[in-house]
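Here comes my example:
=====
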Amino acid sequence: MSDRIVGRTGELKILRTALDETKEGRGGCHVIFGRAGIGKSRLLLAAGDHADDLAVAVAAREAFKHDRTAPLVTLAGALRACSPPTADFAWLAGSDDDPAGNYARIHRLRDSLERFAAVQPLLIVIDDAHWMDELSALAVRELVPALASFPVRWLLASRPGQTDAPGWQALDWLSHRVTPIHLDVLDDDAIRRLCEDRIGAAADDTVLALVEGCGGVPLRVEQLIDALLATDQIVIEDGVATVVGDDLPSSFVTTVREIAGSLSPDAQWLLRATSVLDGPIDIEAAARLMGGLDPAGLFGPIDEAVASGLLVEDHAGLVFRHALVHQAVQSVLSPAQSQHLHGKAAVLARERNRPAAEIAGHLLRSGRSGAGAAVGMLRGTAAGVAATAPATAADLMLQALRALGEHDPQRPAVIADTVGLLASAGRLVQANQLGQEALRGDLEPATRATVRLGLAEAFQHAGQDVEAAGYADTGLAGPAVPPDVRARLYAIRAHAAFGLADLAAADEAGAEADRLGRDHEPGAAVSGLTARSLVAHAEGRLADALTHAGTATELADRVRGQALHRHPRIWLASALTSLGRYEEAERALNQGHRECDALGTAWAQPLWHHYRAVLLTARGRLDDAAAEADAGVGQAEQHSTYQPVVPLLGTLIRLAVLRGDLDQGRYLLYRIRELTAAGVTGPPEHVAWAGASLLAAEGDQLGAFRLMRDVYDTIGARPALLVQQPAVAAVLVRLALAAGDPGRAALAVAAAARLAAANPESRAAAGAAGHAAGVLARDPARLAAAVTAFRLARRPIEQAAAGEDAAGLARDAGDRPVARERYDEALLLAVSAGAHGVRRRLRDGLGAWLGPDGAGRARERPPVLPGLTQAERPVALLVAEGMTNIAVARQLNLSPHTVDSHLRKVFMKLDIHSRVELAARVARETGDRRIT
């Protein structure tokens, strides 16, 4: 009997070629989709065998349904079983309750994988990957792109139909980034060859006609042939196999039943009793389920079952050969037998401290008495995993709902909890449907308010502030709303109102959330204070923004718990950045991001990247800022948290304009318009400025002015755009003057002056006021003062912009020495920051008048790897020296996501595919020169 794979020549070639490339230093990912029995597992085994031949390490594991409540168990199990054995992943055997936190475990895992892959190529194989636990699924999303430059090959296989499972969602996300492999049924020729391999002889028409009923599914064909061989219904004469007999199996289930029926009674009972288990079977568990037999007495039945091909042995114990075999054996059980065995399995699982969801699953199938206990267990388990695995928690609650029935009195409260969990998991449609179903019923006031809270949270996660505010208002208007729920509703209302540009309502709701939350729900108090910080920031009250964020941070640090999950350091860092206190802002971002990793709060991940991008932009590190913002967009899309996407895209558009990549800016603007058309909100002035800045860069001053017309009228009361981008004040003046509207130009000047007067400690605000006034009045002294203020504020982009305007005035006055001095300074700043759009504008304008000489041009002599930016080059050189991405991140004081982004661009620009090729390229270009 041959185990040769037939009918998969193309797929095998793809995987073998990929593994050959991995041996040479390239990474990558392949996702295989196909129905049960189609041959995915056999293909994975073949890939593993080829990896062994190439001396590529293999880490493989099959995921199981109950993996989902044990964080990182799927991926950890694969890596701990790595062949050849290694101590690099031994730490994964530690407790799931690692005090370092789940996201910190992913970061540590990435470090371990980078170190391992720097020495030996690695193949990671996960079969039935749709059952991955939620943290493993998140890790796969994070690690596949992060490790793309290492020789790490991912091979993930899945059946269709599990669309709500986190593992399936991760695979679906990956399948839009790599070309998936879809396994279809075998054609007639492949079926014939499969039969002949299985039989060991040529197959005649009687065999082929019979296996036609298997629908081209190879496992069904194999099991049918094995059944025919076991019952002597295949006769071989002159090298040709023929089917004989009248009572032939007509389906796969019948085939399995025939095979099982040929075994001894003890072996049959072994199969039926253990079919209620979802994972590997050990002999002690089998003995208990079979009625407390002596385990030693089961060796004979086990040998029979294994010899029949229905059970196989692996490193974890006995398993059914395939899920279809498992299902076929389960179908033999009567309802009474099934309930009895599941009751026993629940007791056994509880004694062995198995995951609560596994115990509850058995209880649910053990009859009415077990269902009640299961609901309580499911709710408790959901509460325990909600912070780190909201999708899993939501599925557990949905399972509890199915057990309760339509009219159970517990149902409304369970729905209320489930709606919020679905919202956290990004399953907005499902949350809305379930919430609406509950609201149509006769609910207690407190439960009704809790359902509305869940719906408000759902729409807030989706970035749809209109709906979030509506549900919050309706919830607050109801009677007998518990104070903790009221506090949380006010907090949502505050942030939604801010997103809708109603600053007064946002501040009022934030204050009420703070007042109520201090006594009843500290997390709501923290959230209310951060909303007030946002309002103060938007209104240009920078000291107040810092005070509110600082108070929120102190409260969260003191009470811990859910308050810390609100991550107020996000807004503390924002306020510190606006005040020019960059080192403090960076410390707050670093500490806060570490806490976020430890707590596993996925919604906050994109915000850390956003505010780090804002900080890096202020400091003139544009390439690093773009990498951070890009990572933030990617994480927001991974977690379906669309609220921060519009600000992130707005930041990327500003960076695209500064860096001179207008095509990229147009694409990003299209994405913003798609999101806003779908109801996702964003700061209005930033949405308008995203389009206006592109038009201005393209030379359409009038079009840019028209987009910003409403902003002029509100910028005095809401100078948020000037706080984050001080140079915009002068741009607004120029646009208004070009449009023949000096009145609106004066509004921009007045807004900048008020902002500076209200924030005397902000040198950036002083620079913005001087810059705007200098452009309006064409006053060289004010522009010179603006250059000085921006230099003291350490804002190189704004300093370059003010210097450019000062050089322009000097040119108009015929003062070539002053123009040259200002031009050279601005050009140096632009080049150092990576602002190639500014550099080109300076060259095309002032440079054409001044001539080619100047300090700025001297700074641009081609270095090593001249096609790379100043941010990408040091990353490339350190990687070429053999450093891992995490080590590079530490050395350059960057986030690993930033290093990943730079390295992807390095590979693309240099047209290379591996770290080995990069090292060779650097060696070729540098020769014996010392790399600096």
User: Anything to note?
Assistant: Residues 246-250, 854-861, 928-932 have pLDDT under 50 and may be disordered. The beta strands are 28-33, 57-62, 122-127, 152-158, 181-182, 202-203, 234-237, 240-243, 311-314, 317-320.
